[in-house]
Amino acid sequence: MERRTSKDADQDTATTEHGESELCGAKEEILLAIRCLNSRPDWMGSDGKGWLPEALDLAPLRCPILLERAHRVGPRRDAGDPPRTLIMKFQSYKQKMLVMKAAKEKKDVRLYNDLATEVHRQRKKYDNVRQQLRSLGLRHGIMPPAKLVVTYREQTHTFNMPTEAQEFINKIKEERGGNND
Predict the structure, then answer these.
(1) pLDDT-based confidence at 109, cuts 50/70/90?
(2) Which residues contact 31 (CB under 8 A, 6 or more apart)?
């Protein structure tokens, strides 16, 4: 999970004000992790110098991408199975953001912020509600850390608990049932 202090923010500003490269600022104290879901088995190593820029088609960088560590999650799989999830912990917030931006543009690599287990549990509680929202055709999403946001009739509704969202869905179903939509 990302944690930034005011000291880190000041360091980012100072780096930008002095015109240094957006990737080559002084080593920051923030250490951030991302999760790569569909990585190839050969994408592994303690540094991202070689395979990470190549996998994301990044332009040549002035400074190499530095990872504190990288490892795979879960048991080894057979050769035909999809590769295991790869967790990468960056030394630089700026480099992490550059990699995340490049991954958005490239469709075959999926990167996500690595969230704490408790946040995953909180978000998982909304699964049933989200399935109902999909079946109703309503636009929705999860805001960090675990708030459900629903857009209905051009109004945005935010829910902190799945029960609140379920009550809202029930009202919509009653309303649509009464209008024969």
Answers:
(1) confident
(2) 68, 89, 90, 91
